[in-house]
Amino acid sequence: MSLELETSLTVEKITDYIWQIPRTDEMRVCCRIYADRETVDSLINDYHEKLRTGGFTPALRQLINVATLPGIVKASFGMADIHPGYGFPIGGVGAFSVDDGVISVAGVGFDINCGVRVLKTPLYREDVEPLKEQLANRLFRDVPCGIGSTGEISLKEHEIDELLVEGARYVIKRGYGLEEDLIYTEEGGCVKDADPSNVSHRAKERQFRQVGTLGSGNHYLEVQWVEEVYDQDAARAFGIEKGQVLIAIHCGSRALGHQIGIDYLSTLESASKKYSIPIRDRELVCAPINSEEGWQYFTAVNCGINCAFANRQAIAHLARLAFSSVTHVRPEEITQLYDVGHNTCKIETHSVDGSLKRLLVHRKGATRAFGPGRSEIPERYRAVGQPLLVGGSMGTASYILRGTQKGMEECFGSAVHGAGRALSRVQAKKQWKATEIIEELKEKGIVIRAKSKSGVAEEAPGAYKDVDKVVEVMHLAGVNHKVARLRPMVCIKG
Protein backbone atom coordinates (compact mmCIF):
# COMPACT_ATOMS: atom_id res chain seq x y z
CA MET A 1 0.00 0.00 0.00
CA SER A 2 1.31 3.49 -0.79
CA LEU A 3 0.13 7.07 -0.51
CA GLU A 4 0.93 9.63 -3.20
CA LEU A 5 3.26 12.40 -2.04
CA GLU A 6 4.27 14.04 -5.30
CA THR A 7 4.59 12.88 -8.91
CA SER A 8 7.73 10.79 -8.45
CA LEU A 9 7.45 9.94 -4.74
CA THR A 10 5.26 7.75 -2.58
CA VAL A 11 4.88 6.94 1.07
CA GLU A 12 4.59 3.18 1.47
CA LYS A 13 3.04 1.36 4.39
CA ILE A 14 5.46 -1.26 5.75
CA THR A 15 3.42 -2.04 8.87
CA ASP A 16 0.66 -0.17 10.71
CA TYR A 17 3.38 1.85 12.47
CA ILE A 18 6.26 1.98 9.97
CA TRP A 19 6.13 3.93 6.70
CA GLN A 20 8.72 4.43 4.01
CA ILE A 21 9.57 6.94 1.30
CA PRO A 22 11.45 4.81 -1.24
CA ARG A 23 14.84 5.91 -2.49
CA THR A 24 14.89 7.91 -5.72
CA ASP A 25 17.81 9.04 -7.90
CA GLU A 26 18.33 12.13 -5.74
CA MET A 27 18.37 10.12 -2.48
CA ARG A 28 21.22 7.94 -1.22
CA VAL A 29 18.89 6.01 1.13
CA CYS A 30 15.17 5.68 1.76
CA CYS A 31 13.24 7.50 4.51
CA ARG A 32 11.59 5.60 7.37
CA ILE A 33 8.87 7.10 9.53
CA TYR A 34 7.41 5.66 12.73
CA ALA A 35 3.79 6.79 12.73
CA ASP A 36 0.18 5.71 12.61
CA ARG A 37 -2.03 6.39 9.58
CA GLU A 38 -3.48 9.59 11.05
CA THR A 39 -0.01 11.06 11.64
CA VAL A 40 1.19 10.11 8.15
CA ASP A 41 -1.88 11.75 6.62
CA SER A 42 -1.15 14.88 8.64
CA LEU A 43 2.50 14.93 7.51
CA ILE A 44 1.46 14.56 3.86
CA ASN A 45 -1.18 17.28 4.18
CA ASP A 46 1.41 19.59 5.72
CA TYR A 47 3.78 18.77 2.86
CA HIS A 48 1.22 19.77 0.21
CA GLU A 49 0.09 22.81 2.18
CA LYS A 50 3.66 24.14 2.38
CA LEU A 51 4.13 23.52 -1.35
CA ARG A 52 1.15 25.79 -1.97
CA THR A 53 1.72 28.48 0.63
CA GLY A 54 5.43 28.41 1.46
CA GLY A 55 6.71 28.77 5.01
CA PHE A 56 8.75 26.23 6.97
CA THR A 57 10.10 23.31 4.98
CA PRO A 58 7.75 20.43 5.87
CA ALA A 59 9.08 17.52 7.91
CA LEU A 60 8.83 14.97 5.07
CA ARG A 61 10.84 17.19 2.73
CA GLN A 62 13.45 17.64 5.46
CA LEU A 63 13.68 13.86 5.84
CA ILE A 64 14.22 13.52 2.09
CA ASN A 65 16.86 16.27 2.11
CA VAL A 66 18.76 14.45 4.85
CA ALA A 67 18.61 11.27 2.75
CA THR A 68 20.61 13.04 0.02
CA LEU A 69 23.64 13.81 2.21
CA PRO A 70 26.96 12.01 1.56
CA GLY A 71 27.79 8.95 3.64
CA ILE A 72 24.34 8.40 5.15
CA VAL A 73 23.60 4.72 5.79
CA LYS A 74 20.45 2.60 5.96
CA ALA A 75 17.79 5.35 6.05
CA SER A 76 16.82 8.85 7.08
CA PHE A 77 14.60 8.22 10.12
CA GLY A 78 11.65 10.12 11.56
CA MET A 79 10.50 9.19 15.04
CA ALA A 80 6.83 9.38 16.05
CA ASP A 81 7.23 12.93 17.41
CA ILE A 82 8.53 14.25 14.08
CA HIS A 83 7.87 17.88 13.14
CA PRO A 84 9.73 20.55 11.15
CA GLY A 85 13.02 21.78 12.57
CA TYR A 86 16.08 23.63 11.31
CA GLY A 87 17.33 21.59 8.35
CA PHE A 88 16.78 18.19 10.00
CA PRO A 89 13.27 17.50 11.27
CA ILE A 90 12.91 17.40 15.03
CA GLY A 91 12.55 13.72 15.80
CA GLY A 92 15.07 12.99 13.04
CA VAL A 93 17.92 10.46 13.08
CA GLY A 94 20.70 10.18 10.52
CA ALA A 95 23.79 7.95 10.78
CA PHE A 96 26.84 8.66 8.63
CA SER A 97 29.92 6.61 7.90
CA VAL A 98 32.95 8.11 9.62
CA ASP A 99 34.93 7.38 6.43
CA ASP A 100 32.94 9.36 3.89
CA GLY A 101 30.04 10.92 5.80
CA VAL A 102 29.29 14.44 6.99
CA ILE A 103 28.52 16.31 10.19
CA SER A 104 25.84 19.02 10.27
CA VAL A 105 24.73 21.71 12.72
CA ALA A 106 21.14 20.97 11.68
CA GLY A 107 21.49 17.35 12.76
CA VAL A 108 22.45 18.35 16.29
CA GLY A 109 20.39 21.47 16.90
CA PHE A 110 21.21 24.65 18.78
CA ASP A 111 20.48 23.41 22.30
CA ILE A 112 23.25 20.83 22.28
CA ASN A 113 22.51 17.81 24.50
CA CYS A 114 19.20 19.16 25.69
CA GLY A 115 17.97 16.20 27.70
CA VAL A 116 16.11 14.80 30.67
CA ARG A 117 17.38 13.69 34.08
CA VAL A 118 15.08 11.82 36.46
CA LEU A 119 15.66 11.44 40.20
CA LYS A 120 13.92 8.86 42.39
CA THR A 121 12.60 9.74 45.84
CA PRO A 122 11.56 7.31 48.61
CA LEU A 123 8.19 9.07 48.92
CA TYR A 124 4.80 8.34 47.38
CA ARG A 125 2.05 10.50 45.98
CA GLU A 126 0.07 10.59 49.23
CA ASP A 127 3.17 11.80 51.09
CA VAL A 128 3.76 14.73 48.77
CA GLU A 129 0.21 15.88 47.92
CA PRO A 130 -0.11 18.04 51.08
CA LEU A 131 3.29 19.62 50.39
CA LYS A 132 2.85 20.60 46.73
CA GLU A 133 2.52 24.35 47.27
CA GLN A 134 5.53 24.44 49.59
CA LEU A 135 7.54 22.33 47.17
CA ALA A 136 6.63 24.54 44.24
CA ASN A 137 7.66 27.67 46.12
CA ARG A 138 10.97 26.24 47.31
CA LEU A 139 11.95 24.76 43.94
CA PHE A 140 11.01 27.99 42.17
CA ARG A 141 13.11 29.96 44.65
CA ASP A 142 16.16 27.70 44.63
CA VAL A 143 16.47 26.62 40.98
CA PRO A 144 17.22 29.63 38.72
CA CYS A 145 15.00 29.70 35.65
CA GLY A 146 13.90 32.03 32.86
CA ILE A 147 15.58 33.88 30.00
CA GLY A 148 19.05 35.08 30.97
CA SER A 149 18.88 33.49 34.41
CA THR A 150 22.12 33.19 36.34
CA GLY A 151 23.20 30.57 38.88
CA GLU A 152 25.33 30.53 42.00
CA ILE A 153 28.26 28.87 40.18
CA SER A 154 30.38 31.68 38.78
CA LEU A 155 33.21 30.55 36.50
CA LYS A 156 36.19 32.18 34.85
CA GLU A 157 37.17 31.21 31.31
CA HIS A 158 39.82 28.67 32.34
CA GLU A 159 37.26 27.09 34.69
CA ILE A 160 34.73 26.93 31.86
CA ASP A 161 37.38 25.08 29.84
CA GLU A 162 37.73 22.52 32.63
CA LEU A 163 33.95 22.06 32.77
CA LEU A 164 33.75 21.59 28.99
CA VAL A 165 36.28 18.75 29.23
CA GLU A 166 35.09 17.10 32.47
CA GLY A 167 31.31 17.53 32.21
CA ALA A 168 29.22 16.52 35.22
CA ARG A 169 32.28 15.45 37.20
CA TYR A 170 33.50 19.05 37.30
CA VAL A 171 30.48 20.31 39.27
CA ILE A 172 30.43 17.19 41.47
CA LYS A 173 34.01 18.07 42.48
CA ARG A 174 32.66 21.47 43.51
CA GLY A 175 30.07 19.84 45.77
CA TYR A 176 27.08 19.62 43.42
CA GLY A 177 25.82 16.06 43.54
CA LEU A 178 26.88 12.51 44.27
CA GLU A 179 29.62 10.45 42.66
CA GLU A 180 27.02 7.72 42.04
CA ASP A 181 25.14 10.10 39.73
CA LEU A 182 27.81 9.57 37.09
CA ILE A 183 27.04 5.85 36.88
CA TYR A 184 23.48 6.66 35.91
CA THR A 185 24.28 9.42 33.42
CA GLU A 186 24.67 8.68 29.73
CA GLU A 187 28.39 8.53 28.85
CA GLY A 188 29.20 8.81 32.56
CA GLY A 189 28.36 12.51 32.29
CA CYS A 190 31.32 13.23 30.01
CA VAL A 191 32.15 12.54 26.36
CA LYS A 192 35.73 12.46 25.15
CA ASP A 193 37.20 14.48 22.29
CA ALA A 194 35.98 17.77 23.74
CA ASP A 195 38.31 20.61 22.75
CA PRO A 196 37.56 24.01 24.36
CA SER A 197 39.96 25.72 21.95
CA ASN A 198 37.35 25.10 19.25
CA VAL A 199 34.68 26.96 21.27
CA SER A 200 34.60 30.74 20.86
CA HIS A 201 35.25 33.19 23.67
CA ARG A 202 31.74 34.56 23.07
CA ALA A 203 30.20 31.12 23.69
CA LYS A 204 32.18 30.68 26.92
CA GLU A 205 31.40 34.21 28.05
CA ARG A 206 27.68 33.53 27.74
CA GLN A 207 28.05 30.55 30.10
CA PHE A 208 30.02 32.15 32.96
CA ARG A 209 26.93 32.41 35.20
CA GLN A 210 24.50 30.00 33.53
CA VAL A 211 25.67 26.66 34.94
CA GLY A 212 22.89 25.32 37.16
CA THR A 213 20.09 27.26 35.47
CA LEU A 214 16.94 25.88 33.88
CA GLY A 215 16.42 28.45 31.13
CA SER A 216 13.12 29.02 29.37
CA GLY A 217 11.04 27.68 26.47
CA ASN A 218 10.09 24.03 26.81
CA HIS A 219 12.53 23.43 29.67
CA TYR A 220 11.07 22.45 33.01
CA LEU A 221 11.56 20.92 36.42
CA GLU A 222 8.69 18.68 37.53
CA VAL A 223 7.72 16.67 40.56
CA GLN A 224 5.92 13.63 39.16
CA TRP A 225 4.34 10.41 40.37
CA VAL A 226 4.28 6.98 38.73
CA GLU A 227 0.70 6.51 37.59
CA GLU A 228 1.11 3.16 35.83
CA VAL A 229 3.74 0.46 35.43
CA TYR A 230 3.66 -1.60 32.22
CA ASP A 231 6.86 -3.63 32.50
CA GLN A 232 7.45 -4.94 36.03
CA ASP A 233 10.86 -6.46 35.29
CA ALA A 234 12.24 -3.23 33.85
CA ALA A 235 10.61 -1.16 36.61
CA ARG A 236 12.31 -3.31 39.25
CA ALA A 237 15.64 -2.93 37.47
CA PHE A 238 15.14 0.85 37.30
CA GLY A 239 14.05 0.97 40.96
CA ILE A 240 10.61 2.48 40.45
CA GLU A 241 7.09 1.42 41.42
CA LYS A 242 3.52 2.61 41.16
CA GLY A 243 2.75 5.71 43.19
CA GLN A 244 6.40 6.65 43.70
CA VAL A 245 7.39 10.33 43.42
CA LEU A 246 10.11 11.30 40.93
CA ILE A 247 11.79 14.57 39.97
CA ALA A 248 12.36 15.32 36.26
CA ILE A 249 14.71 17.98 34.88
CA HIS A 250 14.57 18.99 31.21
CA CYS A 251 17.19 21.44 29.92
CA GLY A 252 20.41 21.61 27.90
CA SER A 253 23.62 23.52 27.31
CA ARG A 254 22.02 26.94 27.58
CA ALA A 255 23.63 29.89 25.78
CA LEU A 256 26.95 28.12 25.19
CA GLY A 257 25.40 25.40 23.05
CA HIS A 258 23.36 27.92 21.09
CA GLN A 259 26.42 30.04 20.38
CA ILE A 260 28.39 27.00 19.18
CA GLY A 261 25.65 26.33 16.63
CA ILE A 262 25.63 29.95 15.44
CA ASP A 263 29.43 30.09 15.23
CA TYR A 264 29.76 26.96 13.12
CA LEU A 265 27.01 27.67 10.60
CA SER A 266 29.35 29.90 8.60
CA THR A 267 32.25 27.46 9.04
CA LEU A 268 30.23 24.56 7.65
CA GLU A 269 28.71 26.69 4.91
CA SER A 270 32.22 27.40 3.66
CA ALA A 271 33.14 23.74 4.06
CA SER A 272 30.11 22.65 1.99
CA LYS A 273 31.42 24.76 -0.88
CA LYS A 274 35.07 23.83 -0.33
CA TYR A 275 34.35 20.09 -0.49
CA SER A 276 31.64 20.40 -3.19
CA ILE A 277 28.94 18.83 -1.01
CA PRO A 278 25.53 19.03 -2.72
CA ILE A 279 23.09 20.74 -0.35
CA ARG A 280 19.33 20.58 -0.95
CA ASP A 281 18.60 23.13 1.77
CA ARG A 282 20.91 25.94 2.93
CA GLU A 283 20.10 24.94 6.52
CA LEU A 284 21.84 21.58 5.91
CA VAL A 285 25.36 22.97 5.53
CA CYS A 286 27.89 20.37 6.60
CA ALA A 287 31.49 19.22 6.43
CA PRO A 288 33.12 15.83 5.99
CA ILE A 289 33.53 14.18 9.38
CA ASN A 290 37.22 13.59 8.73
CA SER A 291 37.93 17.17 7.57
CA GLU A 292 39.52 19.88 9.71
CA GLU A 293 36.26 21.82 9.84
CA GLY A 294 34.22 18.71 10.62
CA TRP A 295 36.51 17.70 13.48
CA GLN A 296 36.52 21.24 14.91
CA TYR A 297 32.74 21.27 15.01
CA PHE A 298 32.55 17.74 16.44
CA THR A 299 34.92 18.60 19.29
CA ALA A 300 32.97 21.81 19.96
CA VAL A 301 29.71 19.83 20.08
CA ASN A 302 31.30 17.51 22.62
CA CYS A 303 32.07 20.56 24.75
CA GLY A 304 28.39 21.50 24.51
CA ILE A 305 27.37 17.97 25.47
CA ASN A 306 29.58 18.10 28.57
CA CYS A 307 28.24 21.55 29.45
CA ALA A 308 24.68 20.21 29.42
CA PHE A 309 25.60 17.24 31.61
CA ALA A 310 27.20 19.65 34.09
CA ASN A 311 24.17 21.93 33.99
CA ARG A 312 21.68 19.15 34.76
CA GLN A 313 24.01 17.83 37.46
CA ALA A 314 24.03 21.20 39.22
CA ILE A 315 20.25 21.59 38.91
CA ALA A 316 19.75 18.07 40.30
CA HIS A 317 21.80 19.04 43.35
CA LEU A 318 19.71 22.19 43.92
CA ALA A 319 16.48 20.22 43.43
CA ARG A 320 17.63 17.57 45.93
CA LEU A 321 18.30 20.20 48.58
CA ALA A 322 15.01 22.00 47.94
CA PHE A 323 12.99 18.76 48.05
CA SER A 324 14.82 17.69 51.20
CA SER A 325 14.15 20.96 52.99
CA VAL A 326 10.38 20.59 52.50
CA THR A 327 9.94 16.82 52.91
CA HIS A 328 12.81 16.14 55.36
CA VAL A 329 14.04 13.29 53.17
CA ARG A 330 17.84 13.22 53.27
CA PRO A 331 19.39 14.43 49.98
CA GLU A 332 21.36 11.19 49.56
CA GLU A 333 18.06 9.26 49.63
CA ILE A 334 17.12 11.01 46.38
CA THR A 335 18.94 8.87 43.83
CA GLN A 336 19.34 9.15 40.10
CA LEU A 337 17.42 6.94 37.69
CA TYR A 338 19.13 8.20 34.52
CA ASP A 339 20.14 11.21 32.45
CA VAL A 340 19.99 11.11 28.65
CA GLY A 341 20.29 13.75 25.94
CA HIS A 342 18.35 14.25 22.74
CA ASN A 343 20.27 16.79 20.60
CA THR A 344 23.56 15.05 19.91
CA CYS A 345 25.89 13.46 17.41
CA LYS A 346 28.03 10.58 18.64
CA ILE A 347 30.43 8.07 17.17
CA GLU A 348 28.92 4.64 17.81
CA THR A 349 29.35 1.10 16.54
CA HIS A 350 26.34 -0.48 14.83
CA SER A 351 25.59 -3.41 12.57
CA VAL A 352 24.98 -2.37 8.95
CA ASP A 353 24.33 -5.07 6.33
CA GLY A 354 25.78 -7.70 8.65
CA SER A 355 29.02 -5.83 9.44
CA LEU A 356 29.95 -3.69 12.44
CA LYS A 357 30.66 -0.11 11.39
CA ARG A 358 31.68 3.09 13.16
CA LEU A 359 29.05 5.71 12.50
CA LEU A 360 28.42 9.30 13.49
CA VAL A 361 24.78 9.19 14.62
CA HIS A 362 22.93 12.52 14.59
CA ARG A 363 19.88 12.54 16.86
CA LYS A 364 17.93 15.79 16.54
CA GLY A 365 15.10 15.79 19.06
CA ALA A 366 15.64 12.04 19.34
CA THR A 367 17.10 9.99 22.18
CA ARG A 368 19.69 7.22 22.26
CA ALA A 369 17.84 4.00 23.11
CA PHE A 370 20.27 1.12 23.34
CA GLY A 371 18.86 -2.36 23.76
CA PRO A 372 19.73 -5.06 26.29
CA GLY A 373 23.35 -6.13 26.57
CA ARG A 374 25.12 -3.00 25.34
CA SER A 375 28.15 -2.20 27.47
CA GLU A 376 27.28 1.53 27.45
CA ILE A 377 24.26 0.80 29.69
CA PRO A 378 24.76 0.80 33.50
CA GLU A 379 25.24 -2.76 34.73
CA ARG A 380 22.09 -2.66 36.84
CA TYR A 381 19.98 -1.93 33.73
CA ARG A 382 21.89 -3.91 31.13
CA ALA A 383 19.62 -6.97 31.07
CA VAL A 384 16.49 -4.93 30.28
CA GLY A 385 17.90 -2.11 28.14
CA GLN A 386 18.64 1.58 28.51
CA PRO A 387 16.08 3.80 30.25
CA LEU A 388 14.46 6.38 27.97
CA LEU A 389 13.02 9.52 29.55
CA VAL A 390 10.24 10.97 27.40
CA GLY A 391 8.87 14.34 28.46
CA GLY A 392 5.30 15.39 27.93
CA SER A 393 3.86 18.88 28.32
CA MET A 394 2.40 20.69 31.31
CA GLY A 395 -0.70 18.86 32.39
CA THR A 396 -0.11 15.70 30.38
CA ALA A 397 1.97 12.60 30.98
CA SER A 398 5.64 11.73 30.72
CA TYR A 399 7.00 8.24 30.14
CA ILE A 400 9.86 5.97 31.02
CA LEU A 401 10.61 3.54 28.19
CA ARG A 402 13.46 1.13 27.51
CA GLY A 403 15.50 0.30 24.45
CA THR A 404 14.97 -2.93 22.52
CA GLN A 405 17.00 -5.20 20.26
CA LYS A 406 14.62 -4.41 17.41
CA GLY A 407 15.41 -0.73 17.86
CA MET A 408 19.10 -1.53 17.63
CA GLU A 409 18.57 -3.42 14.39
CA GLU A 410 16.19 -0.94 12.78
CA CYS A 411 17.14 2.61 13.78
CA PHE A 412 20.54 2.55 15.51
CA GLY A 413 18.97 2.30 18.97
CA SER A 414 16.98 5.54 18.84
CA ALA A 415 13.78 6.81 20.42
CA VAL A 416 11.35 9.70 20.62
CA HIS A 417 12.27 12.52 23.01
CA GLY A 418 8.85 13.95 23.80
CA ALA A 419 5.40 14.66 22.46
CA GLY A 420 6.56 16.99 19.68
CA ARG A 421 4.98 20.35 18.94
CA ALA A 422 1.68 20.52 17.05
CA LEU A 423 1.51 24.34 17.02
CA SER A 424 4.23 26.98 16.89
CA ARG A 425 4.87 29.20 19.89
CA VAL A 426 3.29 32.15 18.06
CA GLN A 427 0.16 30.10 17.31
CA ALA A 428 -0.02 28.91 20.92
CA LYS A 429 0.12 32.44 22.34
CA LYS A 430 -2.73 33.47 20.08
CA GLN A 431 -4.88 30.57 21.25
CA TRP A 432 -4.26 30.40 25.02
CA LYS A 433 -3.83 32.75 27.98
CA ALA A 434 -1.38 31.88 30.74
CA THR A 435 -3.81 32.64 33.57
CA GLU A 436 -6.40 30.26 32.10
CA ILE A 437 -3.83 27.49 31.67
CA ILE A 438 -2.54 27.87 35.23
CA GLU A 439 -6.08 27.75 36.58
CA GLU A 440 -7.02 24.72 34.48
CA LEU A 441 -3.95 22.83 35.64
CA LYS A 442 -4.62 23.79 39.24
CA GLU A 443 -8.05 22.18 38.93
CA LYS A 444 -6.24 19.00 37.81
CA GLY A 445 -4.04 19.13 40.91
CA ILE A 446 -0.93 20.48 39.17
CA VAL A 447 0.85 23.45 40.72
CA ILE A 448 2.65 25.75 38.26
CA ARG A 449 5.33 28.33 38.98
CA ALA A 450 6.69 30.29 36.02
CA LYS A 451 8.86 33.33 35.36
CA SER A 452 6.98 34.31 32.22
CA LYS A 453 3.27 34.31 31.42
CA SER A 454 3.98 34.29 27.70
CA GLY A 455 6.19 31.25 28.28
CA VAL A 456 3.27 29.42 29.88
CA ALA A 457 1.03 30.22 26.90
CA GLU A 458 3.72 29.06 24.45
CA GLU A 459 3.96 25.75 26.29
CA ALA A 460 0.22 25.10 26.63
CA PRO A 461 -0.56 21.36 26.67
CA GLY A 462 -2.70 21.79 23.56
CA ALA A 463 0.31 23.08 21.61
CA TYR A 464 1.80 19.59 21.68
CA LYS A 465 0.94 16.27 20.10
CA ASP A 466 -0.67 13.55 22.18
CA VAL A 467 2.27 12.02 24.05
CA ASP A 468 0.29 8.86 24.79
CA LYS A 469 -0.19 8.24 21.07
CA VAL A 470 3.42 9.11 20.22
CA VAL A 471 4.72 6.62 22.78
CA GLU A 472 2.21 3.96 21.75
CA VAL A 473 3.41 4.12 18.14
CA MET A 474 7.02 3.46 19.16
CA HIS A 475 5.92 0.71 21.55
CA LEU A 476 3.75 -1.07 18.96
CA ALA A 477 6.49 -0.69 16.34
CA GLY A 478 8.69 -2.58 18.79
CA VAL A 479 11.65 -0.18 18.75
CA ASN A 480 10.94 1.25 22.21
CA HIS A 481 9.08 -0.46 25.05
CA LYS A 482 6.81 1.14 27.66
CA VAL A 483 7.89 0.83 31.29
CA ALA A 484 5.94 3.48 33.21
CA ARG A 485 3.63 6.46 32.80
CA LEU A 486 4.18 9.54 34.97
CA ARG A 487 1.87 12.39 35.97
CA PRO A 488 3.00 15.90 37.04
CA MET A 489 2.26 17.31 40.50
CA VAL A 490 4.46 20.43 40.41
CA CYS A 491 5.90 22.15 37.34
CA ILE A 492 8.56 24.88 37.36
CA LYS A 493 8.93 26.86 34.10
CA GLY A 494 11.17 29.67 32.90
Summarize the structure.
The chain has 494 residues and is an alpha+beta fold. Helix content is 34%, strand content 27%. It folds into 2 domains: 94 residues, no CATH class; 379 residues, tRNA-splicing ligase RtcB.
The name of the CATH architecture of the largest domain is Alpha-Beta Complex
How many strands, what sense, and barrel or not for the largest sheet? 8 strands, mixed
Give the strand line-up of the largest sheet. 1-2-3-4-5-6-14-13
Tally of helical runs: 15
Determine the structural class based on helices, strands and strand pairing: alpha+beta
CATH class division of the largest domain:
Alpha Beta
Helical proportion?
25-40%
Shape: globular
Describe this structure as you would to a colleague.
The chain is an alpha+beta fold and 494 residues long. The chain has two domains: 2-95, no CATH class; 115-493, tRNA-splicing ligase RtcB, CATH 3.90.1860.10. The protein is 34% helix and 27% strand. The protein has helices at residues 37-53, 59-67, 125-128, 132-142, 157-166, 168-173, 201-205, 232-238, 254-274, 292-327, 405-411, 425-431, 434-443, 453-458, 467-477, and strands spanning 2-6, 9-15, 18-21, 30-34, 75-83, 90-97, 102-104, 115-124, 220-229, 244-251, 286-288, 335-341, 343-352, 355-364, 366-368, 387-390, 398-403, 414-416, 447-450, 480-493. The strands form four sheets. The chain has an eight-stranded mixed β-sheet with strand order 1-2-3-4-5-6-14-13, with helices on both faces. β3 (18-21) and β4 form a beta hairpin. α9 (254-274) runs antiparallel to α10.
